[in-house]
Amino acid sequence: MKYNLLKLLGDLQSRHIYLDSDKLAPFTLRQTPPFALVEPDTVEAAVALLHACYREKGVVNVWGSGLHQNIGGLPSPFDIVLSSRGLNRLIEFSPENLTITAQTGMTLAELQQIVTASKLFAPLNPPNAGHATLGGLAAANSYGSFIQGFGSLRDFMLGGKAILADGSYIKFGGKTVKNVAGYDMCKLFIGSMGTLGLLTEVTLKLWPLPENIIVAKPVVKNLPDFENLAAILHHKALPLLAADCSFNLHNGDIDNLQLHYAFYTTAALDEGYLNYLRRLFPADTIWQKQGYKDYQAEPGSADNFFKTTPHDLVLEWIVPKSQLFTIIADLQQASNDLSGAIEFYGYPAAGIFYNKLKRSSFTEPGAFALALDKWRKKIHQAGGFLQVNNAPDDIKIVIEMWDLPPAVLAWQKKIKLEYDPTGVFAGGRFAGGI
Amino acid sequence: MLDNTYDKVISCSKCGFCQPTCPTYLVSGLEHEVARGRHQLVRAQAEGRVAMNKDIKDTLFQCLMCNACYSNCFPRIKTDEVIARARYDYITRYGQPQLQRYIFHYLLRHPEVLSRLLKLAAPVKNSGLSGLAQALRILGWFGKNLATAEQLLEKIPRKSLRELAAMRNWQPRKTRGKVAYFVGCGINFAQPEVGLATLELLTLRGFAVEILPNFCCGLPAYAYGDLDSVRWFAQQNSELLLATDADYIITDCGSCTSFLKEYHRFCDDPVQSERLQPILNKIVDLTHWLADTMDWANYKDDRQPYRVTWHDPCHLAHHLHEKASSRAVMRNIPNVSYTELPEADMCCGGAGSYNIAHSDISKKILARKLTNVVSANADILATACPACIMQLAWGVRQNGMPVRVMHLNQLVLENTVRD
Amino acid sequence: MDKKLIKKLQRICGRENVFSRSLDLLLYSYDASMEKGSADVVVLPQTVSQIQELVRLAVAERIPVIARGSATNLSGGTIAPQGGMVIACTRMNRILEINTEDQIALVEPGVFNLDLQKALAEKGYFFAPDPASQKVSTLAGNAAMNAGGPHCLKYGVTVNHVTGLDFIGADGELYSIGGRTALTPGYDLTGIMNGSEGTFAIITRLVLRIMPLPEAVSTMLVSFADIDSAANAVSAIIARGIIPATLEFMDNLCIRTVVQSLQVDYPVDAAAVLIIEIDGPELSLASQNQEITAICRQHGASDVRLAKDEAERTALWAGRRGALGAMTRLKPSLVVFDGTVPRNRLPEALRTIHTICHELNIQYGTLLHAGDGNIHPILVYDERDADETARIRTGCEQIMKTCVDLGGTITGEHGVGMEKMAAMTLLFSPRDLEAMRKLKHVFDPENILNPGKIFPQLRVDFCL
What is the DSSP string of B326-346? Predict the structure, then answer.
């Protein structure tokens, strides 16, 4: 047992330190439970913890709901799990300004419940993320199909507060959409995978809750049909809320191709919109009008797709929109070499697709690594990126999960070193072992 | 500074909105070559923050005085006024070049001498013996830039407009009114055919013409900061303008029109200035008159329409803010299919004799104009200023472009039924 | 500046592109703000590799480098307070590619925003950020300052529309970040670079997200007899769930001034007008217009005028876009502030600003990007009058303080530059600023790029 950690925890004199193994078991990564779990319920306590870690060289892994803990590479060892769940208060909800400020331990579902009561919503719908914390979502810059209509957190997180590795508690951004006072530190924290600081508070921009949703389920038999439809919709400024696409590829054959478009509208306009949209979609499209609540309540196929086991491989790729179908065709070719199927799920209007493969499709990790290299090359040529979100540990060891250009990685390392020189925030999972 | 130039430049808020309008800025990207920079220079000079030395010459003298900046200028600073004043101060301090002095103080004040000299030069120039012409100091107008000047001027007419016009009687069959025709120097000495077209149109539409025995309008002197000469020309011409009983005073050179309308600025005598005001309102540019009298025109409709495009002379577009008339006239001609020229109101780089004095910048500006002309894909490029015609025709000739450059009135006359 | 150094610069860029006479430096000593400062040399490169060599030389010689576009900056961002080299990118102004399939445009740094808009419009597309200076401001400048504009209400600010950048770092290397995709992996370097005011790098190329033009646009001018009603109507419209494309506010002085200078048809007796624009499919506009009209009437609008055609629409906007400049007719100098407050605090903010200016005897008019709570009080003065200038500076400080007190920020779109460095402490603690400084330290450890900006000049160190 490390002396420095004991001293560290002793100094904290906090009620919220757990050392019992049954408490620690859920936070096991790579078969090793942490030394301690700390769940501060005040910012001061969190500051004290991080400050102590900075001094005593303790390593902290920030943990919200745990949804994203499997993303990325293998984590390097850490001593303490810092649970953000204790910091879950609503700071300010201002419906007139379309903003909400909350502590980052609050879950997305809690936040949506608060804001939808005032007919607002945060256009953030990562699959299975109802219980994910705001901090985790921001750290991973998670998104769902709404990214196609509203962008990602990068576009609507206005400000927040964070505790840096040395324990300094800072604020950044503000509560207004327009704000250029100093550097845009929001951008630094969003998607940084918790490697630069502990986000304690975020302010999000909200939108009026769509009154009605028009759902279009075009019946498409093959990819060319889909491509034609996508081309028609591409150059139109439509009130798109989301577009979901899923299909399976097995031995080069497409199977079970499903498209699901959702447009937001108001009760007064939905008839007009429906007529308008009908002209764009194929005749045999299935149309549906529903309230936002019903739309949300429908069991999403995205949720099913992303319910993964540790034996699933999940790839995420994003390409310039013109390249989408070229890449799908390339993967169709590639699927010939695989024993198992490739499942596809995607947000076509953003050029983002996910592939799920079974670990068993590859005899050994090296075979997957080779295939990944080949696909990556193709996607890079198309101007896109391919990262592996989920993989069994034996594969994580042999591949680079992330897909960062070397120059970006070099900057990333410099930034990490500047903000967390001693490595207070656990590394390993992010690109380049950060 | 004697006048209110300082008050004008101090109201420049440095917003920089002049940048995308300024031809010299667009080809140089330099703060020296844009109204904001020029205003700040003049201001700094007035406040003693920059030494009065020859470094400032380029910034002051490379302005085209096109006033395109005015359209984007919130405090409404007329850059040409600022620049003319600053050039006056400059030549007052460093002296006026001999050649300019000769032109503004002698030749243009004695047009009969100029006419005689040009007559001597004409055969020489037209047969290409430029060396001799230069020896005679006739084309020496242009000093060391003779080669450029020579290329620009395709030929020197053997007879001036005044001489040609004197051979005929300009009386219409039915008289609707009387106009006084102010003869611009460019038309008189270089493009008499344009002037003849004007005279014909005026009579065809029923106006008796009085050809004014005027001097140069004074704009060339103004452009070189010789404000003393400007006063002299304004004084002489004002007398003529006051004397005529014509209903309108017409010119077919947009530059002359706009400058004549500003004569009150150069009149020191307040009584005279007041008398001038109503007269100045009678001055009408030919394009405007053509639009006004459009209903009396009897146009031909006998061919596949020409594709015609239009270049706005700066003095029409940015000084008189007269852009609608020419387009209305052309759209009204059955034989014309009109297409708008991209950046139609951007200077062609001619700007009087700017193309001779600053041929490098002028060529870049012209290149931009010609690129636009190509994209307009027209058979005819019409405009209404002899300097523009000279510049554009030269560019078209140099590049072998299949475009006829002509004055609007030539286009109108060509398509008018003469009974 | 050292003759040898000038020679070296001339070798890089050509003799004719290096300027160091006192006249040259005078002409590059200002931008559209109140600030001034003289560089030692001005260069106008034409290629990326020239910029790269210039920066390398500057690093070796330890001279500051200031990137400059059209210098329409309102906060002194392109001024050289510590001397050094101004790199003016005005000659690098080509649109390299417009790709409607990928929905991106690739441009050089010196392209005017409006020139891109015109080229895009031909293809049925647009670039959402439309700062009031769009006729003249450059796209790299827009990105460096993270510029806003009226349409930000619906479409977001510049950073939301830049997907990739090439830049020359303070180490003289060329980097390419982001790309043609909506998101790129890793820390959001593109996001960080936007709004860094030229203190991190010199932007040499931009990948911009473009969007299909909305099918239809409808613009209305709504008059109010008092300011509070207008401000309350703004909140009410948003609260009803309508996000117009723009929601602009002008007070009476602005209205009268702009009517005098531009002959636009605005109601001169209104206390305030709102210019409300909505866009979307044709069929969606009529009912929204009715709803907005009803809300405005409920809040006491005296007149609602809908632009009937494109010409009327353009005329309405000419008034709004010309308002700032028109104010220079009142007095020769002006300063415009761009603080932002939460939307529901607008009436309070306007009242306080009125009191401040009244007490200091400052003439001012107010424009607002009301939908964003972004206020633009325009204070006019004569900078030759030292006393008045001093009062203006006091007024500015108090206005910024007001914005911060009301939960807003000191600058919504113009940036900190030199003008608001001191005011940063109103908003940020020394620790907050230190966290920002770290980022500066990553990108420019030697403080070569645009020094003397953003951070309060008296460094306040803190201990743990």
Answer: HHHHHHT-TTEEE-PPTTTTS
The DSSP bridge pattern shows strands A99-103 and A169-173 to be unpaired
Q: Does C459 touch chain B (CB under 8 A)?
A: no
pLDDT at C244 over 80: yes
Q: What is the CATH number of domain A212-398?
A: 3.40.462
Q: How far is it, in rounded angstroms, from Cα A55 to Cα B285?
A: 84
pLDDT band of residue C461 (cuts 50, 70, 90) is: very low
CATH value of C3-88 in 3.40.640.10, 1.10.10.10, 3.30.43.10, 2.40.50.90:
3.30.43.10
- What number is the ipTM of this complex? 0.94
The third-level CATH classification (topology) of the domain covering A90-208 is 3.30.465
Least confident window among A132-146, B55-69, B144-158, B225-239: B144-158
Q: Could you tell me the two tokens for A103?
A: 């502590």
CB contact under 8 A, A351 and C182: yes
User: Is a pLDDT exceeding 70 seen at residue B154?
Assistant: no
Q: Identify the pLDDT of residue B2.
A: 47
Q: Which residues of C touch A273 (CB under 8 A)?
A: 281, 283-284
Q: What is A333-358 written as a DSSP string?
A: HHHTT-SS-EEEEEEGGGTEEEEEEE
Selected for mutation to probe chain C from B13, B32, B73, B368 (highest C CB count within 10 Å) is: B13
**C-alpha count within 13 angstroms, C-beta hemisphere, residue B122:** 14
Portion of chain C with pLDDT greater than 70, in percent = 98
Using alpha carbons only, what angle is made at residue B41 by residues B40 and B47, rounded to the nearest 5 degrees?
85
As its CATH architecture, domain B161-290 has: Up-down Bundle (1.20)
Residue with tokens 């140069």: B216
Beta-carbon pairs below 8 A across chains B and C: 93
For all residues of chain B together, what is the average pLDDT?
A: 86
Listed residue (A59, A45, A155, A56) closest to A103, CA to CA: A45
Contact C328 B50 (CB under 8 A): no
Range A3-85: architecture per CATH? 2-Layer Sandwich (3.30)
The CATH classification number of B5-94 equals 1.10.1060.10
CB contact under 8 A, A418 and C442: yes
List Cα–Cα distances, C411 to B157, C375, C420, in angstroms. 65, 9, 8
Decide if B386 contacts B315 (C-beta within 8 A).
no
Which pLDDT band holds residue A231 (cuts at 50, 70, 90)?
Answer: very high
- Token pair of C73 as six digits: 């900056």
Cα torsion angle, B358, B359, B364, B366, sign: positive
pLDDT of amino acid B167: 87
Confidence of residue B149 (pLDDT cuts 50, 70, 90): low
From C31, C88, C115, residue closest to B29, measured CB to CB: C88
Give the CATH number of domain B295-414.
Answer: 3.40.50
Q: Which among C73, C158, C171, C181 is the top mutation candidate for probing chain A, defined by the most A β-carbons within 10 Å of its own β-carbon?
A: C181
What tokens does B235 get? 């004084």
Question: What pLDDT, in 10s, does the model give residues B14-32?
Answer: 989 999 999 999 999 999 9
Say which range, A7-16, B152-161, C449-458, has the weakest mean pLDDT.
A7-16
Q: The tokens of A38 are what?
A: 């700390």
Of B278, B274, B218, B221, residue with least CA distance to B249: B278
Using 50, 70 and 90 to split pLDDT, how confident is the model at B132? very low
Q: Does domain C330-417 have CATH number 3.30.70.2740?
A: yes
- Whether residue A262 is predicted with pLDDT greater than 80 in this model: the reply is yes
CB contact under 8 A, B40 and C26: yes
